[in-house]
Amino acid sequence: MYASGKYSSRGPALIPRMKTKHRIYYITLFSVVLLGLIATGMFQFWPHSIESTADWTLDKRSVHDAPLIRLPVSSPIPERGDLSCRMHTCFDVYRCGYNPKNRIKVYIYPLQRFVDELGVPISNTGLSREYNDLLSAISDSDFYTDDVTRACLFIPSIDVLNQNSLRIRETAQALSMLPRWDKGMNHLLFNMLPGGPPDYNTALDVPRDRALLAGGGFSTWTYRQGYDVSIPVYSPLSADVELPEKQPGPRRYFILSSQTAIHREYRAELERLKEENGDALLLLDKCSNLSQGASSARKRCYKGQVYDYPQILQESSFCVVLRGARLGQAALSDVLQAGCVPVILADSYILPFSEVLDWKRASVVIPEEKLSEMYTILKSIPHRQVEEMQRQARWFWEAYFSSMKAIGLTTLQIINDRIYPYAARTYEQWNNPPVVKWTSVNSPLFLPLIPPRAPGFTAVVLTYDRVESLFRVITEISKVPSLAKLLVVWNNQNKSPPEESLWPKIGVPLKVVRTKENKLSNRFFPYDEIETEAVLAIDDDIIMLTSDELQFGYEYFNYLYTYKMPGDIKNWVDAHMNCEDIAMNFLVANITGKAPIKVTPRKKFKCPECTAIDGLSLDQTHMVERSECINKFASVFGTMPLKVVEHRADPVLYKDDFPEKLKSFPNIGSL
User: Which residues are listed as membrane-spanning (predicted)?
Assistant: First the structure.
């Protein structure tokens, strides 16, 4: 009771003294808290700039709630597009900088609604579901940043996937108003349906300055190699139809054509093939007898019989993909999803993601003029190869075609690999399925190059009747440590090769093949005797090369030269007996996008035994024709694929003053 009484007597006296002493403190504290709450509320409702750091997501802001931007008639219009742009001229890699993860950062502009001065939108569709899916996938990826100052790449929220829905001039003006546009530098646009009637250009017609274009219908004329990215035309059926994976193997039909808008000349040629080959070829068209309410996009017909699409594609080994008004066709995606090997007939078409994907493993590309030979060409492909291609086709779809997310992230990865090449994905990572059936790897048809892999290389020597020079070449080549086999192509039909006992004795198998016609292209034929991936093609008068020089550099693309050479180049070479080496360089440069590598400093080639009678190069018209053939080949390819190079590959210690025994290739450059 005493304690309680003491507390009661002191308590009331203390409270007034505390209020007096700390009144200023509490008032100040309360004022700070109140001001903080007011400031927070004002920030929430105050209009933000276009470079807001809020995460990009359609869920947080409806398109209809996006800010309305009116475009003055006098708004600037970007340049049409610089065809000379490359990563080192039109892209600022210094924006990307160094980061430990070697990953570019991508900023997506916030949504805005652009209209002209009369209030008419720049697009009649607004933001499509496909573009929304694309932007959402990027915003959820490791590439995305909401900090505009850290961004390496900028993606507008302006949907240009389908040019048909755009007002070209107004869309270009909207792009130029983006605060970071800077003539399109480091900006990426996605477009799948370029051009419009009647010309249907193969690239987006919207003027876009220096912006990169991920396009779905590039030709060799509009594609800026190493800058633009060729992407697939997305098929809506990918999301609507689930096709279970079908095991590779023979199918009910050998060839199937399912496109409905085929040019009448192609349709007539396909009908002729159908007449010649019967049930092996199924030629489908749009249906005219469907019941009311049935979806024509999901059906195909042949003589009144209705087939479900795309399910019917799984019943064929090969599926035709012909060019339409546009080069890029959504049918390619449908065919891949079905595990059917696409037979692509679209001259000059840049295949999707061809910068990294090896389409030889998943498709057959045939020139349009060879449509009449399609059945014969496909029949020549071994069954084992067809099965591997079916498997690869399905995997390409799953990895790179199946969704807008897959398409968008693959595009960004390709650009990322250009900017951080030392951390780029390898050929195997891009092209090998995660789970490989290793029992099939023994097949040469699974490999990037058609001939099977074996140690070393095969030397193919083309000869006519210079026996003495031929024997010297054979003797020198036989000293190369990596030589696995030597194949002599005897191109003289009027004279037999020397007897077996007269040939040089060498430590590897030597085989003589007699040709039926005297053609220069015989040197690049993929003979059955070739069991190595690497091949050295050489003439019988190249006697000055040393074994070290041959060991240091070799590799040619024989199969591609024989079966994939565009147009009539191979026939032209055979008819003129000239330029086969230039044709091979055109082919390899066009496929790889790279320049040839000069190996060692040799500058002169001498053949003391050669005379004006037996030397093709000594003919007065020889050099004139070589100039003509460059122009001819460039016109066939539709571009000049040859690259300028200022690089020479020399072995380590080549010119250093060290003992010869310390050098791996001591005998290089000597005459």
Answer: 24-46
